[in-house]
Amino acid sequence: MAAGMRVLGIESSCDETAASVIDGNRVLSDCIASQVDVHCAYGGVVPELASRRHIVSVLPVIATALSEAGVTLDDIDGIAATAGPGLLGSLVIGLQAAKTIAMAKKVPFVGVNHLRGHLLAARLLDNTGTPIPEFPYMALLASGGHTAIYHVRNWNDIECLGQTRDDAAGEAFDKVAKLLGLGYPGGPVIDRMAAQEGEMEEFPTAFRQRDNYEFSFSGVKTAVAQRVAQMGRPSREQVDAIVRGFQKSVVDILVRKVVMAARSRQVDRVVLAGGVAANDGLRRHAAEVCATKDLQLFAPPKKRCTDNASMIALAGLLALQAGERSAMDLAPRANWPL
Ligand code: KG4
Ligand code: ZN
Q1: How far, in Å, is the centroid of ligand 2 from the Cα of 47?
Q2: What does the angle CA 160 – CA 162 – CA 163 come to, to the nearest 5 degrees?
Q3: Domain boundaries in the chain?
Q4: Is residue 174 within 6 Å of ligand 1 at its C-beta?
Q5: Using an 8 Å Cβ cutoff, are 279 and 100 in contact?
Q6: DSSP labels for 31-96?
Q7: Which of 146, 153, 291, 312 has the most CB atoms around it within 10 Å of its CB?
Q8: What ligand is nearest to the CA atom of residue 45?
Q9: Which residues have CB less than 5 Å away from ligand 2 (the ion)?
Q10: Is 86 close to ligand 1, i.e. is its CB under 6 Å away?
Q11: 187 C-alpha to center of ligand 1: Å?
């Protein structure tokens, strides 16, 4: 990776307003204005409230990212912003901020696919010393909006082998947490609870057959709802047992599929990406299985699994270095597959 190009990345696809400055693939700053306090009362992201908060946060978070990187806009060689997929009313705010700065400073601008950002996040260098994968690698991308397996041959040569037919894994975590009254976002709280040893309910997993890279998480969510209805008012111990069984069922199938895909394509590197990749149970199980199959596992720091702007800056920098430019009339894309 050629160092020396400095890119400002902006991310506003869902409920986090984020900005980052990178130099080559080295992260100089990575700032997030979280909206969790706005949405937690509703058990999920309220799009209209998200847009309103983005417009409040976007310029301050950019200013913080520049100052933490020790640079000004005059030191920036290019600007990247998430153009989709995501909530339209949220995307439009980061995108418009990015285009406006690019036009004013006369620097190149590129709109970035959010999923590509997640898939490249493992290649960012920072001071944590986390090893970064070379291409090619097999990636599990599991977030609040997407769950899929990707064969990443290069930054711009990415094949989707299969994805969820219904809910995303993170969505299942959030819905189960809501059902059990555990708060939002559901992933981190379920992860913490599931880490305690104890009884475990059993829940089904879909599409376990070989060479199938699709997922389905609506079944396990319904099974949890039915179990809760049978119990009436589940006790704390019963909730713990449900949560452990739910997490195990989701983690098992996610790891099983990415490992199966790596072996079938003879790829020896496995990468975890997306908010659910912050799950300790998933990271632990993936490490155990990869070790037994001679696969090298790359799990980026948790803050690079959940939504962040450094991953958008990196996807943008690679596109800008390849000569890609987006026009000033680029509009956000709610559904933009890779
Ligand atoms: O990638 P992300 O920040 O945003 C999207 O692009 O969707 O992912 C957010 C999702 C949420 O559903 C959240 O519950 C889940 O990632 N998540 C987790 C954990 N941390 C965040 N899921 C399981 N375990 C976690 N520790
Ligand atoms: Zn995301």
Answers
A1: 15
A2: 105
A3: 6-126+305-321, 137-299
A4: yes
A5: no
A6: EEEE-HHHHGGGTS--HHHHHHHHHHHHHHHHHHHHHHHT--GGG--EEEEEEESS-HHHHHHHHH
A7: 312
A8: 1
A9: 143, 307
A10: no
A11: 6
pLDDT digit string (tens) for 315-335?
999 999 999 999 999 999 999
Contact 274 CB / ligand 1 (< 6 Å):
yes
Residue 310 tokens read as 């450094």
CATH topology match: 6-126+305-321 vs 137-299: yes
Residue 84 Cβ < 6 Å to ligand 1: no
**CATH code of the region 137-299:** 3.30.420.40
83-127 tens-digit pLDDT? 999 999 999 999 999 999 999 999 999 999 999 999 999 999 999
CA dist 246 and 253 (Å) reads 11
Which residue's CA is minimally distant from atom 8 of ligand 1?
275
Ligand minimally distant from the alpha carbon of residue 283: 1
Q: Which CATH class is domain 6-126+305-321?
A: alpha beta
143 pocket-lining for ligand 1 (C-beta < 6 Å): yes
**How many A from CA of 75 to the centre of ligand 2?**
28
136 CB less than 6 Å from ligand 1?
Answer: no
Residue entry with tokens 């739910």: 246
Any atom of ligand 1 within 6 Å of the Cβ of 147: no
Closest CA to 139 of 124, 126, 157, 122: 122
Q: Global pTM? A: 0.96
Sign (positive/negative) of CA torsion 16, 19, 23, 28?
negative
Residue type, 164: T
Written as one string, the DSSP assignment of 253-293 is HHHHHHHHHHHHTT--EEEEESGGGG-HHHHHHHHHHHHHT
Distance 305 CA to ligand 2 centre (A): 8
What's the mean pLDDT in 296-320?
Answer: 98
